[in-house]
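Troubleshooting entry. Yesterday's outputs looked truncated, so today I'm pasting the complete records for two proteins to confirm everything comes through intact. If either block looks cut off, that's the bug. Protein one:
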Amino acid sequence: MADLHDPEQLDVLKRAGEMVCRSAEGGQQQRL
């Protein structure tokens, strides 16, 4: 489990979430 109280962990989680969102949006755009 990631330590949510660790700023670095939070930053990594945020970046990972953004990458997932971008990849999902990119996949949808390619499908269209």
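Protein two, checking that the full record survives here as well:
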Amino acid sequence: LCVTCDNVSNNDAMIDELAVDIPDFGGQVMHTRCFLHMVNLVAKLVICKFDVLKRKQDNSRDDEAELTAEESQLKEQLEELSKNIELKDYVTIAEITGDDSNVGDNTEGLVDAAVLLTSDEQEEL
């Protein structure tokens, strides 16, 4: 028996409870994260290696004088791209460390599928 879930804190608690309630259940060893979620986390970790490092203001003035126009344009484009990544990184870091206290679940647009079923279909469930 293996359990795959994507909500870190609630499902960690569920796995712990299953280990208590079902003696043959392996506990955290049997907990598998969602594959696409793992691919997303790995991709973000790889991409963050290419982020532009922030420099001190006084040092960057000397370096900027030595840049060509093309290098300056490329640097601006890279900084703009890295800003978009940084906005999402706090979620990834929280997921990796397990500290998701500041990250809420995005439930906007979710619909309870049972409400859309006919009464016969609901009875069948």
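Both blocks look complete. Sanity check on protein two: The mean pLDDT is 71.
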